[in-house]
Amino acid sequence: MEAVDQDPLLLLRQSIASGKPIIPTTSPDDTSSSPAPEADLAHATHLQFTDPRRISIPIDAPTRFISNDSPVDLRSIYFAWLNREVAIPEYNASATKLNDELAGAATVHKFAFVERLDLITWLEGASEESEYIKPLAGEKDNSAVAAAASAALKGSTAPTSAQGKSGRGTLDPRLAQIYNGERRMGDRNTVLRGIKPTVRPPSLSPAPYFPVLTKRSRPRTSPISASLPPPCSPRNPPSPPPSPHPRSPSR
């Protein structure tokens, strides 16, 4: 419990949430009732927190924020928080200036854009987890206990909803069991519009073609044109009709 109370990241986050002052100082004394004299980051040796209790942490103490497989010191964390509203080029220029003032005694870590955004989001309390911040030992134990209890109640593997979140503890195993028994509704489009009808592909073998004559495609014939003889051409003149009284052959 003592390690949790003196964790620099948690103390910084709690002080930001409560609005209590965070004082860079050269005095390690945290028993005085009056706040310590403030110093600039280039000469400060400690960072004094006043919430939830007055405590001074060495400003070069390593934190649980891991960058390039190395823990980042408290001075770099606090400096990134002070410059949270500054653009990346101005932030890098200010960090270079502070490194020049430190004169090799220490080096301020320059956060990448994603690391800086993740850190500020976590410090503000907008996010409960961070891929760069290692969880505390107590959070790991509570998460494992909750997962085992949920698995014993359900009789299967532990659900992911029972795992703890950094800064908020763990979910009640009974509540996790209720969540896992809920009906899965699917995505939003399926719930609102339903499933599209299945269109079956046509047969691979083509069907035989039967022309269908509609009313408009049939030739039109009138009763008058049907009784008339077919038209004749000039090359084939019509033969004369036979005489009703054939002549007898001459003798």
Annotate the secondary structure layout.
Blueprint: H1 2-5, H2 8-18, E1 22-25, E2 46-49, E3 55-58, E4 62-67, E5 70-73, H3 74-82, H4 88-102, H5 113-124, H6 137-154, H7 173-180, H8 188-193, H9 223-227
Antiparallel strand pairs: 1-2, 2-3, 4-5
Major sheet: arrangement of strands = 1-2-3
Rounded mean pLDDT score: 73
Biggest pleated sheet: 3 strands, antiparallel
Q: From the alpha carbons, calculate the radius of gyration and give it in angstroms.
A: 46 Å
What are the low-pLDDT stretches, counting only 5+ consecutive residues below 50?
A: 141-169
* Helix/strand order: HHEEEEEHHHHHHH
Q: Give me the secondary-structure category.
A: alpha+beta
The overall strand count is 5
**Overall geometric form:** elongated
Q: How much β-strand is present in the residues?
A: 5-15%
Terminal CA distance reads 156 Å
> What is the number of helical segments per DSSP (H or I, 4+ residues)?
9
Helix content: 25-40%
Please provide a written account of the structure.
The protein is an alpha+beta fold and 251 residues long. Among the domains are: 2-124, no CATH class; 137-180, no CATH class. Helices cover 35% and strands 9% of the residues. It contains 9 helices and 5 strands; from the N terminus they run ααβββββααααααα. The protein has helices spanning 2-5, 8-18, 74-82, 88-102, 113-124, 137-154, 173-180, 188-193, 223-227; strands at residues 22-25, 46-49, 55-58, 62-67, 70-73. A 3-stranded antiparallel β-sheet has the order 1-2-3, covered by helices on one side. α6 packs across α7 (173-180). The protein is elongated, with a radius of gyration of 46 Å. The N and C termini lie far apart (156 Å).
